[in-house]
Design goal:
This protein is an all-alpha fold and 300 residues long. The protein contains 15 helices and 2 strands. The longest helix is centred in the middle third of the chain and has 41 residues.
Length: 300
């Protein structure tokens, strides 16, 4: 009589092997993703000349110093700092403020505009509905490099060159954001619109008071993506802005690399300090994203 080898312990061990392999793979991916962040963080506590000669590494034996961050915050603590460090620090926080204003404005306006466009395309049936949505999808296949010249001519004609409006308006109707909102709202029950009308709510009231809270997960995820895209955007703002006082952080940091000298000390520390806003946005909206995904629109 053949002996049964499929004991509970053997079956449990067989199920544990794929789990161990998957865990090991995820750990490896996390280490690969975390390496640039950790290496950059350590490099911000070392002289820029050392980073250039030896490169960024995970060498924990080298001494860590605060000189780079003293230069970065020389605007607030100028005692004992040279004039060029104070000027560099003032410019850095000016660029930082410009990026914050531009990012917040871009995220708020983009989410609102894209939400209402997607709401109309998904909740109402009218002529050219499918064609308009097709045009939105078609624009996603056009590289931005092809659109740069006509967009630049357009904002020049409108007289909004060297302004925040010139940076924000061309990308206000983001095709990817509209597509995401529409696909999310297509799955929502249309009975909510009828219920709102029965209660005497206007069409704008339905869109704002009923449907908008339900789409919180979509707002949360797109807020993270829009904030990252606006904060890290350098090419289009660099074409629009002419005044150095309006430069964003990405453009300003790029000006620290010149043929006449490179300010790596301020560049590395400033780059690491520039990650903080995106981390804050992710931590805030990730909580709302999880809460929104666990709540349903209709309770049975």
């Amino acid at each position: 009589m053949a002996k049964n080898t499929n004991t509970p312990r053997t079956m449990e061990s067989a199920r544990r092997v794929p789990s161990i392999l998957a865990t090991g793979l995820f750990v490896l991916v996390c280490l690969l993703i975390a390496f640039p962040l950790v290496a950059g963080f350590l490099a911000s506590f070392r002289p820029g000349s050392e980073v250039v000669t030896k490169g960024m590494s995970l060498d924990f034996h080298s001494p860590l110093i605060l000189d780079n961050y003293r230069i970065l915050f020389a605007k607030f603590f100028p005692k004992g700092m040279p004039d060029d460090a104070i000027v560099g620090s003032k410019n850095y926080f000016m660029w930082y403020k410009n990026s914050l204003i531009l990012t917040v404005t871009t995220v708020v306006l983009t989410l609102l505009v894209c939400y209402f466009i997607a709401y109309a395309l998904s909740m109402y049936k009218f002529k050219l509905n499918g064609f308009l949505f097709f045009m939105v999808i078609a624009t996603m296949s056009v590289p931005f490099e092809i659109l740069m010249l006509p967009l630049y001519q357009e904002i020049t004609t409108l007289g909004i060159i060297n302004t925040n409006a010139g940076v924000i308006l061309p990308g206000l109707c983001a095709a990817g954001t509209i597509f995401f909102f529409k696909q999310y709202m297509t799955s929502l029950p249309r009975e909510l619109l009828d219920a709102g009308r029965v209660d005497g709510c206007t069409e704008y009231g339905i869109a704002i008071k009923i449907m908008m809270p339900i789409t919180k997960p979509a707002f949360a995820s797109q807020a993270i993506l829009c904030a990252m895209g606006s904060w890290n955007n350098m090419l289009w703002p660099m074409l629009v802005f002419r005044d150095t006082k309006k430069f964003t952080l990405q453009i300003g940091l790029n000006t620290l690399l010149t043929p006449y000298g490179n300010n790596y000390d301020l560049l590395i520390a400033g780059s690491m300090f520039g990650i903080i806003p995106i981390l804050i946005v992710y931590l805030i909206f990730n909580r709302y994203l999880v809460d929104g995904m666990t709540s349903g629109a209709v309770k049975g």
